[in-house]
What we know:
CATH architecture of chain A: Alpha-Beta Complex
Strand content of chain A: 15-25%
Structural class of chain A: alpha+beta
Mean pLDDT of chain C: 96
Oligomer: heterotetramer
Family (chains C, D): Belongs to the class-V pyridoxal-phosphate-dependent aminotransferase family. Csd subfamily.
Number of helices of chain A: 6
Largest sheet of chain A: 3 strands, antiparallel
Keywords (chains C, D): Pyridoxal phosphate, Transferase
Number of strands of chain A: 3
Strand content of chain C: 15-25%
Domain Aminotransferase class V (chains C, D): 26-409
CATH topology of the largest domain in chain C: Aspartate Aminotransferase, domain 2
Number of helices of chain C: 13
Protein name (chains C, D): Cysteine desulfurase
Bound molecules: pyridoxal-5'-phosphate
InterPro entries (chains C, D): Aminotrans_V_dom, Aminotrans_V_PyrdxlP_BS, Cys_dSase_SufS, PyrdxlP-dep_Trfase, PyrdxlP-dep_Trfase_major, PyrdxlP-dep_Trfase_small
Radius of gyration of chain A: 15 Å
Structural class of chain C: alpha/beta
Amino acid sequence: MQLEQMYQEIILDHYRTPHGAGLREPYDAESMQINPTCGDEITLRVKLDGDTVAEVSHETLGCSISQASASVLTDLVVGRSVEDSLRILGAFQEMAQGRGKVEPDEDVLGDGVAFAGVAKYPARVKCALLGWMAFKDAVIRSERSDSQEATA
Amino acid sequence: MQLEQMYQEIILDHYRTPHGAGLREPYDAESMQINPTCGDEITLRVKLDGDTVAEVSHETLGCSISQASASVLTDLVVGRSVEDSLRILGAFQEMAQGRGKVEPDEDVLGDGVAFAGVAKYPARVKCALLGWMAFKDAVIRSERSDSQEATA
Amino acid sequence: MSLDVTKIRGDFPILARTVRGGRPLVYLDSGATAQRPRQVLDAERSFLEQHNAAVHRGAHQLAEEATDAYESARARIAAFVGADPGEVVFTKNATEGINLVAYALSNASSGCNAAGFPGAERFEIAAGDEIVVTGLEHHANLVPWQELCRRTGAVLKWFEVGEDGRLDLDSDPITPRTKIVAFAHQSNVLGTVLPVEELVRRARAVGALVLLDACQSVPHMPVNLTELGVDFAVFSGHKMLGPSGVGVLYGRAELLAAMPPFLTGGSMIEMVRMEGSTYAPPPQRFEAGVPMTSQAVGLAAAVDYLGEIGMDVVHAHELELTALAIEGLSAIPGVRILGPTTTEDRGGAVAFVVDGVHAHDVGQVLDDRGVAIRVGHHCAWPLHRRFGVAATVRASFHVYNTPDEVTALVQGVQAAREFFGVS
Amino acid sequence: MSLDVTKIRGDFPILARTVRGGRPLVYLDSGATAQRPRQVLDAERSFLEQHNAAVHRGAHQLAEEATDAYESARARIAAFVGADPGEVVFTKNATEGINLVAYALSNASSGCNAAGFPGAERFEIAAGDEIVVTGLEHHANLVPWQELCRRTGAVLKWFEVGEDGRLDLDSDPITPRTKIVAFAHQSNVLGTVLPVEELVRRARAVGALVLLDACQSVPHMPVNLTELGVDFAVFSGHKMLGPSGVGVLYGRAELLAAMPPFLTGGSMIEMVRMEGSTYAPPPQRFEAGVPMTSQAVGLAAAVDYLGEIGMDVVHAHELELTALAIEGLSAIPGVRILGPTTTEDRGGAVAFVVDGVHAHDVGQVLDDRGVAIRVGHHCAWPLHRRFGVAATVRASFHVYNTPDEVTALVQGVQAAREFFGVS
Ligand SMILES: Cc1ncc(COP(=O)(O)O)c(C=O)c1O
Ligand SMILES: Cc1ncc(COP(=O)(O)O)c(C=O)c1O
């Protein structure tokens, strides 16, 4: 059965007990992202500590893939530098959009490699990326408000 | 050769020496008609004498079929009652739009029966009818201005 | 009376293929787009191999033949919905047809555009005028009206949808300021068939125009637009076994005659000068440019195909499948069907949610078993919000579907619950 | 380098047919619509028999395959004209593409519509602003601008056409108030190729937008839209060996991103509520409703076919035929060719009048001999008025035409003179 290729145990585990679920205060920036084809939504908050991602929290109204992905994201970026986290994001995105032809690096992506199977289903790639897009947007927003403070 | 079916000698004769060609004064009503696909134009004037079509004159910028048709029209309606002329118009139109399946009545249509061949070429039917549409429109206009006078 | 599905399936080449590693294709997504029988493919191809030319423009034999084929297609499609050929305008899809009417309204209001069309004031719309839709519309019959309101200052109002998936007729927002009432004949999500007669009556009472979105009715049941008494209607070729890239706007003859044009260009003109132009009578006035010639021919073949089966037979067949689906799905714990759960005033679209399993995940399990359905908001996002869900699973039927395929759907939904451990 | 016409003709089923009682078809009307090779017909059919589904909407395997086919088509067509896939919007024909831009301008001006698109003020147009076209435009690139002027109070101006059929660059009406300059790459009547670079330079100098009507260039010569530096361009599938019912609007990425939508409905939205909607990024923003899926696939096959021959080879072949036609027709007394009589800056459309024989009558004699050309004003009525004629005869070529067919044309014109006794 091909289903197990997409829904690997790791994914189902994260889906059942998602890390970072539930919005938390305080935070530096928030982003709401939506998948226009299915209406799924994620709201994601980022708290930075200097240059480090201190906390990620999110509320995801979506399928197993989008929820598990947000959970894995939380694991992968918390405690990393912003720069590192964006590098991980890049690797995740490359794999997700790679149509199953990109060999993921487990050292970089950790549990994220489980999403390699999703890459073979183009209609689900957006689900896997929803949380990551929210994270990217939130980081950009927090940097923008930072620089506003700096110039203020 | 099928050409001769469309361009019967009668048609070519009328084309070479069209009757009613050249706009004349006085007249009761005038109509300008245009063929939007090829840009051909006819201006046609009608002078009525009571209920009789006294004179038809026209200026036709168009192909042999439209010119010959206006010429034949002039022959057929001048001297007839308005009612008769519209009956002839009806018969001509029926034949022209009949796709070559309507047997024309020579007693009614005179030289007009020569246009039976044109009916097989749908793209040329409008050419054959251009003058007739102008005639119909002019008659309607003259009746309208009549009744305006009557009510004035 | 009854229908030989096996024979019909033989006409549809795509139904013979397999998906996901050898599983037979169970295509239950005809509400999005239907498949095409050989007869439609052949009609289009033989037109292209024998008669293709620009229509209404040339004087050579091919141009004559192409024009005849195109106009014969118009006449057959018109007859199929009880209309006159002059009341059928070809568009690229139903969406264009609705936009056409919406833009004609604002064009009539930008003054001089209406010049020359007696009666065009019928279409003028002013700030404060009202447009009425319903809460179950496809985006195609909602967003163009929102945009018309933006352009003109008109106000959008709507009928609410009841918990049973029927229109709440008590929420009637029609007033003397209502210019047009636009609604779906059949919901593409719930399957609900709307009370056309009653809505037409209410619109008429205030002198409003009526536009019927017949995308989900014309392909599935007998529809006579003249008898329904609507002013405008739209439908799409690709949902009725015909080609993509072609749709129909129906308009009552006298209204089309008075309506200013939308798209302008070649073939819709009467006279063109650099200083200004005048326009041809309908339907040409609304068909600018080289049209979808072979697609119209294909759509006429689809209409012939459906007509031969009989639309009452098609409808009865689809309702039989709908009843089976409702029965089978309702029996599964945690499955909730949105919309009517009987076949009364209903067509063959069945939308549902599965407690604890997201629609996308249900769809994935079904896809893995070869069952093609649709998941998401099906371009009816406000309706989904009204039911408090982001996404549903929708199965929809056409003439080629079988009871066994409904069984495959039901079993697939059970399998999804098992896979995600909610059973 | 040179082209195997015999082999190519074998690809076009329709060229094997006869007309008017057994005469071989000599099809010289490709300027109106071209014929389609088996490769295009097969590509569309195999898509429909194997992969047909609604694109961008479904999650099942067919929907994935259909979406891939559709987006791959976009990418190949974009590459063919030197554009990025995101810069290619599918329309039903070129006419829709021009209307899209014209309506986007008035939509941007009706205020709130532009909300949310940074840079949309670039498209706002006010009373007194100017739109510039030329005196040789097809109605498709004239009437939509006349209507835009009616809607907004803008003023239409135009370049005059010289006696030689070239643009009179001294009649330049461009001023600082010019919002957009819209012109044909190649005249569909005269064959004249316009000086794109110079016109772009002049438009840029006043900050105006540029729209290129590439209907008669993209099918016949190598065209790189990015290198030409235009802002928008349009062309139609049916003139380039592809299907009817599909065309392309090219727009520079940054402009499309800032432009408000035209047709609205499904698949072009970001978020829809009853109270209002937001829209997707381009190209989706401009593709409302179920698109011309199989037609896009067919157009990509046409582009592959042309690309394999090589557009420089296609162009050289057509110019060879053009030179023969000019030479043969000029040798007939009383024949007057409108437009350039050399092949310099020229494409393969040859329009002419025959003294003493109306174009319709010439066309009839040609048709009787199996030669299909077009007669009339070819949707360029103002241009015909400028030359003082109501109608011309136009022969136009494509990759499948032969020198013998040009000879048949020339002989047919001679026969017409004899038949009407003017020789
Ligand atoms: C120069 C030119 N522009 C525009 C058009 C309109 O193309 P379409 O009718 O395919 O929209 C044509 C062809 O008819 C043309 O030749
Ligand atoms: C009810 C309804 N209206 C409108 C549409 C839009 O049709 P199209 O996308 O073919 O324009 C659809 C289908 O998508 C529909 O189901």
